[in-house]
Fold:
Amino acid sequence: MLHPALKYASVFLLSTVKFLGGPLAGTSMGLHFWTTLALTVGGMMTSVFIFSGVGRAWMQHRQKQRRLRREPIFTKRSRNIIKVFRKFGMGGIAFLTPILLSPIGGTVIATLLGVPQQRIMLHMLWSALFWGVTLTFASMHFGHMLKH
Structure:
């Protein structure tokens, strides 16, 4: 039996790295819906806050590395990300971040594309709330099917 503080920390920290893990972990540990939701959204937004600030420095470091190694700037993956950004903007990146990307990955991508930190925070917040409610609800109401 885990101490409640360890349960909370597990859900929070898992959500900073892989959003989908938060609702699944919270449900599997028997946490309440609102507790799981708050820890999941809080974990993602902590990651977004940290990496939207650090992202610019990291981006400059990666650009220097690419130039030194003469790596191609555009890969198939980077082209697809740019297509999504051009078509749907920051909202599209934010929408896809919790389910396809990680909070870190989506934030770094948005930073690389030059989106201001305040816009990143706003869009990632609504996305975290939307997907947090959706995934926590789904894991609580349909999670029993995974046990059988």
In short: The chain is about 80% helix and 0% strand. The helical segments are 4-17, 21-28, 33-69, 76-96, 103-112, 117-142.
